[in-house]
Amino acid sequence: MSFNFLEKLFYGQSSNHNDFSVLAVDMHSHILPEIDDGAPDLGTSIELIKELMKLGYKHLIATPHVMSDIHPNTPENIKEKLEIVRSEVAKQQLEVKIEAAAEYLLDDHFEYILEQENWLCFKEKYILVELSFIAPPPNLETYIFRLRTQGLTPILAHPERYLYFGNQYHKYKRLRDMGCLFQINLLSLTGYYGKDVKKNALKMLKKGWIEFLGTDCHSMNHIEFLRKGLCKKAFERVLSNHSFYNSTLLS
Fold it and tell me: What are the extents of the domains in the chain?
């Protein structure tokens, strides 16, 4: 099946969606200040939150990176930043709920996190995980299995961006068979990360393999591309013809 056919299938008709209010919840963002490669300060955090609200979100789950060498965040320091943001949100009387979890890189340090069972999840059972963009960890399936045996449901962040899997979709299916859910980035559907990533995202949607959509918002640049995607109707068919789990995270 050609890529052009897939584009027509998903984007060929218009709908009434002019924002992301049907999703209600953004469960993947980097809006906490001074903690990773996202918002550099509190002012930027609030600016991003306001823009995400304009895009229709009423509930935001910040997911700072947890990377042992670059962003060695812990539940403790993530919660500290969360309370700073919540305080400012309340001060400015913004009608939005802010929570925090984390985006865990499945690297060697993740073994320690597994042993300590010290992590931040959302809805008490979902844990957001990511892979290196260079190569998957050799113990990927072991990590997924151990998370499942500890009662957690792993959500693989932006699987469409792991181009080293190529067209080997059986590898993705294997992870799904093990109980791993998938989240794609809305920006992937605009071509922001390149045509191959966009193609992957479309194919996974067609297979019914995507449970969550996330902004993965780091900056105002991402906000601008999300807004442009809405103007160009890049998201309409996806939002109209697929059901996602985002709204089930409302509380």
Answer: 3-249
Radius of gyration of the chain (CA): 17
CA 163 distance to own-chain centroid: 17
- Output the pLDDT for position 16: 56
What pLDDT, on the 0 to 100 scale, is given for residue 103? 98
Per-residue pLDDT reduced to its tens digit, 111-166: 999 999 889 999 989 999 999 999 999 999 999 999 999 999 999 999 999 999 98
pLDDT at site 6: 46
3 state SS for the chain? CCHHHHHHHHHCCCCCCCCCCCCCEEEEECCCCCCCCCCCCHHHHHHHHHHHHHCCCCEEEECCEEECCCECCCHHHHHHHHHHHHHHHHHCCCCCEEEECCEEECCCCHHHHHHHCCCCCECCCEEEEECCCCCCCCCHHHHHHHHHHCCCEEEEECHHHCHHHCCCHHHHHHHHHCCCEEEEEHHHHHCCCCHHHHHHHHHHHHCCCCCEEECCECCHHHHHHHHHHHHCCCCHHHHHHCCCCHHHHCC
User: Parallel, antiparallel, or unpaired: how do β-strands 97-100 and 126-130 relate?
Assistant: unpaired
pLDDT tens for 43-75 read 999 999 999 999 999 999 999 999 988 999 999
CATH code assigned to 3-249: 3.20.20.140
